[in-house]
Design brief:
heteropentamer, A mainly alpha, B alpha/beta, C alpha/beta, B: ten-stranded mixed sheet, three-stranded antiparallel sheet, 13 strands, C: alpha/beta, six-stranded mixed sheet, four-stranded antiparallel sheet, 9 helices, 12 strands, binds adenosine-5'-triphosphate, binds magnesium ion, ATP binding (chains C, E), ABC_ATPase_HisP-typ (chains C, E)
Chain lengths: 283, 253, 256, 283, 256
């Protein structure tokens, strides 16, 4: 070398010094504090006016298990209805036809604007407005059709559709307009272009929020207990009406909700990762 | 005479909210509907040569359901009140006394209902009990120069008892007929305060125009009293003090 | 020139809001002719191509493609707008290649090419795939049939885009600056494919800044400026010996 | 010109032809159909078993107005609490300290995983677990502290905090890491950098979803009726428990919710536009 | 060279995962010296600068700045890690200018400069603003005090970034390819500011590909390759007459 890079002079040689790792006192104190808090909480729950044997006993009671099943399939069914409506509404909203646009906007406004609990009650009591459905001889009594199950499905699904339509719309807007033009240039009509070209690409943007909404739907079904749909919270309530163990049964329901959400959250992450994979080129 | 739609269907559809033990509840172990109303209703339907088809609903939907024809009758521990007779006709079959009760540990503190003046008392906001509390408070507290009872609304009677256990309220009120059952479930937790302050009749709610159905139900009920089924079921569900001597139609005031 | 032109543009006007993008443009293109359009940025070249393919609606004037009036049906002495499906059918006679390729990123090269014939023309997939492979060979990409666009270079993507347009068997091909988004070393492959296409007799309208390509391949060159056609003629005339001052100014700026 | 651009030949001259505007038959038919449907719906509601005079009469009843006021201020208060907690949790989640990270993740998991109705009931019934709050002489009876109002505020606010923390975190992640480094290079500590540099830039990404969540919160408050918080739906229920006009009172509540949401939605749009303005440079 | 160096780097090692980014680098920089670091992409130049400013933690070795050991406190014969606040304080003696400017986009040029003195050093805003205006004048941007970064050209942004670093009155300035993100016509202004700074006696370490600038301004040039310092000497020695084969190869590649 042309010149000494180093001109070691007044500085001490510390190469032999012992490196003392950081002690993280604050961190350990925080851990201790949190552990103490959790222990205190656990103790309070243990000695508090809560009978843990009831929690254990009812965790797998038939009524609870049946409610769990109803919660799960209703979440899936309502989500399916919501996605169908949401996609339809998003397509209408982006159509050049102002009438369809107006209908789509009105639907979104109305159903996003009213609490779901009201919508459920209105569906369930539809017979007050329409005593019969159908025409003449082919009519059915509304109350025979509008069971708690159907009312819950319609209420949850139609409400979900209003939210999903916005998610789908955002997804469709995220697709480059060049893709529409390329599709048109090979002779596709608007609907074919949407189905074959735009939707498959929009999925990447749509899937993550939809996963969130699915988790939200699992919890939303608990509201259908007001119209006697036998989901898990409703069945837990029926039990505590009979035996007065309110908190215990609420804890049972909470445990199952946490289980479902804890399964769905990583599932959603996997799905997101899958759909964002190999997307490098389209950015 | 039963209406043809019922005979052809072979069943009476009855609305029930299984949140009022021992009149109606779902057995926590089996999830089956059971209770005094259920067994009495089944016996009544059998007397009339049909089945009883129970349909679970919620409290605010019950009278609405009679109006919309979702159900034929309501048999769910419903009080026969003058205001409700505008929408339905009641076949009365049970007497209910609005009963104050408190925590067993505080029984000595509240020896008589008058001791509740100025205290916090809870009851389900969906029932006629709030009116009973107010009537009692006006007559026995305010009129006699004592502070009024403070009514605390709750979401149901189970909620009222939960709040009583927390001490959020000093006492609660519910139908006296249900107390023995509750006290059996949770021994040494609750204690009644004095005697019921007001009696109401409980009835089967039927649509106002359904004269035939009303008469058939009343006759059937009388037959059940006559053959001893009524007394046997009362006994089974610890309700003997709530028996009524004879079946009335719209006997409530 | 003789016979009916394949494309006939008559007095076309187009405004975007208050901006006058096309000012009474008239132009004929004969079958088998290769026409290059040159001009400064913003002169309306892309807009003209998009009008021919009905991605943009004209304000007035007429465009005829293969004897058919685009966008309207003639009934007596009235013009009725066509439905979306009829416009889609008319677009089948024209293929378009975009500056930014616009391949469908969720489909392989082969699927991109097969998509139109199968979905739009409803032909059997097997037959279309065989044709698509032939087309890929023609653009020199037989080995990339199963690659996704993200894994192709820009020049390869553009050649797939050309094959995709050709798969619809169009009578006319429109190219909008097909090489201007490419790295210099990739331009050659695409131009080679276009030259081969021109030699095979395809009618082509090419918007381009590649004057070398225009000189070599174009039957005619048109120079546009501010929404009008300023000069038109053989490549050697317009590029080598321009008459109009504006054309001269443009060429000296581009060549410097 | 060198050569005629045009060689007009066999093509007809259509320049004089009349342009017949598109008739949009389908569009008009759709309008008519929708108008018919809406009219039918209106008629059904008018002649159905709904007493519109009740709706008019109770729309501005004192109990309803008071419920409306409670709904509005509870939405604002719970949202404020939620934002505070959400920001704190997001900062903890992104801290290098694994303990703080763990706490933040646990909080988000627990409160996003359980239905809000359960959380409300558990807060309201806290006295079953903690009969007293505080230590020795300085303790208060939990039931005196945990009023329906406080339980609603805690339940809604803490639940909201779990959701908001994810929104804030996404906003913070959207800020270029170069900004952190530039802040450090002028001697800022992590917290100063967050406060002065990162948050102001994250706001653009945070504001739109937060606006949505605020609208959601207005409707979420209706759930607090189960713990006797006197919001608008609760007061409407109290009225219909007394007079049995269920649907009429539900319609009254629905109208007010729609009014609030119809005011908030354009307000949110304005806010979004303001915050995305002049952001060109930071992309 | 004499006296204690301002920066003394002793045997610094750095791994990123299994990748060995710095391989026992040792280097002294005297007060007032201008040192240019050159080298191929990935050779560890940026990493070395970031170690000096503690944006990256070294695995082993020591870096002394202005007589103070960075990152650790010496207690007897043990080294204790410093807290975040102490590291923030140590960073005050060094200013850093990034390749991509990293101005705060929500603040005007003036606010960008004033932010550090006011928020970190807690000095009165009025006084800092007066100083900031002087600095803006020095980098030739007095008229842009109230412009937001989005409205400044790249070269202007980089000059504001230099002023922002100078506002903290550092003893040492680090530059990481300060002109490589700029359009060619904007490079000159930034280099002019840096030359003026060098002439004013500021100690500077500059990672750069601008060999002309290095020749003109650098007291010393260091060539790095694969995480090691390969060659070091005066600009004319290293750039004009490199001894090492690797340096020769690099220079011939850059100059071609
Ligand atoms: N959809 C549109 N809305 C508004 N203005 C438009 C639109 N499309 C094009 N323009 C404007 O019309 C003018 C002509 O655009 P055009 O794209 O046809 O130019 P060009 O000759 O293709 O230029 P370039 O070489 O830059 O592609 C431009 O000034 C452009 O801004
Ligand atoms: N945070 C990091 N994580 C992993 N690898 C890193 C990280 N930072 C740098 N590297 C790697 O270390 C090596 C040296 O990087 P460095 O940025 O120091 O190179 P450089 O000499 O500045 O190159 P350039 O001229 O491209 O800026 C590179 O191979 C780089 O990929
Ligand atoms: Mg163009
Ligand atoms: Mg670098």
């Amino acid at each position: 070398m042309t010149q000494p890079v180093q001109a070691r002079s007044a500085l001490p040689d510390i190469s032999g010094y012992r490196l003392v790792p950081e002690r993280h006192w604050g961190r350990w104190a925080a851990v201790a504090l949190i552990a103490l808090l959790l222990a205190g909480l656990a103790r309070a729950f243990a000695v508090g006016d809560i009978e843990w044997t009831y929690v254990g006993q009812f965790l797998t009671a038939p009524a609870i298990m049946q409610g769990l099943v109803n919660t799960i399939w209703m979440s899936i069914a309502a989500m399916a209805l919501g996605i169908t409506l949401g996609v339809g509404t998003a397509v209408m909203r982006m159509s050049p036809n102002p009438v369809l646009q107006g209908v789509a906007m009105g639907y979104t406004w109305l159903f996003r604007g009213t609490p779901i609990i009201l919508q459920l009650l209105l569906w369930f009591n539809l017979a007050l407005v329409f005593p019969k459905l159908g025409w003449g001889d082919y009519s059915l009594r509304t109350v025979d059709v509008m069971t708690p199950m159907l009312a819950a499905l319609l209420g949850l699904g139609i409400n979900q559709g209003a939210y999903t339509s916005e998610v789908v719309r955002a997804g469709m807007l995220s697709v480059d307009t060049g893709q529409y033009e390329a599709a048109k240039s090979i002779g596709m009509t608007r609907l074919t272009a949407l189905r074959r070209i735009v939707f498959p690409q929009a999925m990447r943007v749509i899937i993550p929020p939809l996963g969130n909404e699915f988790i939200g739907m699992v919890k939303l079904t608990s509201l259908a207990s007001v119209i006697q749909f036998a989901e898990i919270l409703h069945n837990a309530q029926n039990i505590y009406y009979a035996n007065s163990r309110v908190i215990e049964l609420l804890i049972v329901a909470a445990i199952w909700y946490l289980v479902i959400v804890s399964i769905l959250t990583p599932a959603q992450m996997l799905l997101e990762r899958r759909f964002s994979r190999g997307a490098g080129g389209s950015r | 005479e039963l209406p043809s739609r019922i005979t052809s269907r072979g069943a009476i559809i009855a609305a029930v909210v299984p949140n009022y033990p021992p009149l109606e509840l779902r057995d926590p172990k089996t999830n089956e509907l059971t209770g005094f109303d259920i067994e009495l209703g089944n016996a009544l339907a059998a007397k009339l040569g049909v089945r009883m088809q129970w349909q679970e609903t919620n409290f605010e939907q019950m009278l609405t359901s009679v109006r919309t024809g979702r159900v034929d009758i309501v048999m769910s521990g419903m009080s026969d009140l003058a205001s409700r007779q505008e929408t339905a006709t009641f076949i009365d079959y049970l007497r209910s006394g609005s009963q104050f009760f408190t925590q067993a540990s505080r029984a000595a503190e509240f020896a008589t209902p008058e001791a509740l003046c100025g205290k916090r008392v809870g009851a389900s906001r969906r029932t006629s009990l709030p009116n009973d509390i107010k009537a009692f408070s006006d007559a026995e507290c305010v009129a006699k120069g004592r502070p009024a009872i403070e009514y605390v609304p709750t979401e149901g009677s189970a909620d009222a008892r939960t709040q009583l256990r927390q001490g959020r309220i000093d006492a609660a009120m519910q139908g006296g007929e249900t107390l023995p059952y509750i006290m059996g479930l949770e021994p040494n937790t609750y204690a009644p305060v004095g005697e019921p302050v007001r009696f109401t009749l409980m009835g089967i709610a039927v649509g106002k125009e359904e004269a035939g159905l009303q008469q058939a139900l009343a006759d059937g009920m009388r037959a059940l009293i006559a053959d001893g089924t009524y007394a046997r079921l009362l006994e089974k569900w610890q309700l003997t003090p709530s028996a009524i001597p004879e079946v009335q139609i719209n006997g409530g005031r | 020139m003789s016979g009916r032109p394949l494309v006939s543009i008559v007095n076309v006007e187009k405004h975007f809001g208050s901006f006058h993008a096309l000012k009474g443009v008239s132009l004929d293109v004969q079958a088998g002719e290769v026409l290059c359009i040159i001009g400064a940025s913003g002169s309306g070249k892309t807009t003209l191509l998009r009008c021919i393919n009905q991605l943009v609606h004209t304000d007035s004037g007429a465009i005829w493609v293969d004897g058919e009036l685009t966008g309207h049906r003639i009934q007596g002495h009235s013009l009725h707008p066509l439905s979306e499906a009829e416009i889609a059918r008319q677009r089948l006679s024209t293929g378009m290649v975009f500056q930014r390729f616009n391949l469908f990123p969720h489909m392989t090269a082969l699927e991109n090419i097969v998509e139109g014939p199968v979905q739009v023309q409803g032909r059997p997939r097997r037959e279309c795939e065989a044709e698509a492979r032939t087309l890929l060979e023609r653009v020199g990409l037989a080995h990339k049939a199963d690659a996704y666009p993200a894994n192709l270079s820009g020049g390869q993507q553009q050649r797939v885009a050309i094959a995709r347009a050709l798969a619809m068997k169009p009578k006319l091909m429109l190219f909008d600056e097909p090489t201007s988004a490419l790295d210099p070393e990739l331009v050659g492959d695409v131009l080679a494919v276009m030259k081969e296409l021109a030699r095979s007799g395809m009618t082509m309208i090419v918007v381009t800044h590649e004057l070398g390509f225009a000189k070599e391949v174009a039957d005619r060159v048109v120079f546009m400026d501010h929404g009008s056609i300023v000069e038109s003629g053989s490549a050697s005339e317009v590029l080598g010996n321009p008459r109009e001052a504006r054309t001269q100014a443009f060429l000296s700026a581009v060549l410097s």
